[in-house]
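Hi L.,

As promised, Potassium voltage-gated channel interacting protein 1:
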Amino acid sequence: MGLVMGTFSMQTKQVNYHKDKADDDLEMTMVCHRPEGLDQLEAQTNFSKRELQVLYRGFKNECPSGIVNEETFKQIYSQFFPHGDASTYAHYLFNAFDAAHTGSIKFEDFVTALSILLRGTVTEKLQWTFNLYDINRDGYINKEEMTDIVRAIYDMMGKYTYPVLKTDAPRQHVDAFFQKMDKNRDGVVTLDEFILSCQEDENIMRSLQLFENVI
């Protein structure tokens, strides 16, 4: 899940922190889409105004129009995985960020998701991840959906990262996870089953804490 964070974070480290409020307000008006006010975003997320300003400048550097379509998102995301094909995973990730299904990601969408992934509770983070895996939005994760996501992750990381894995490795990976998560053996994983299984896995719980102090 940490892969989500890298997309725009590099830009935030190059920001000039000494711009005054007038400059910040001017930046907010010079794009095609003007995001919601900082006060409102501060209330809706776990970020301070200063953190939101830093994030916005990074977002605007990558997306001057203030809106990211799927193709642009894929291009940005693929830069972090030059040895693999990140397009399919980026597609699923884009849909998770585009919670309203508008076909684009606005700054509000970006910081809302980032707030959950960086500063949300364990339950909030797991709910967001569940929605990523629930491709058809029916409230369940089936084996096909989980296989599609896992295969996309393998493709993204690249074949040179896993030289010894067989072509059926994603399916084996999913079978093992499904056996653990599908508590009642009905062929699908519910949100409650997903959260409970993840909370029982020490590796998953540690991974949820890795990016809590990124910003």
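The mean pLDDT is 82.

Thanks again for sending the construct details.

K.
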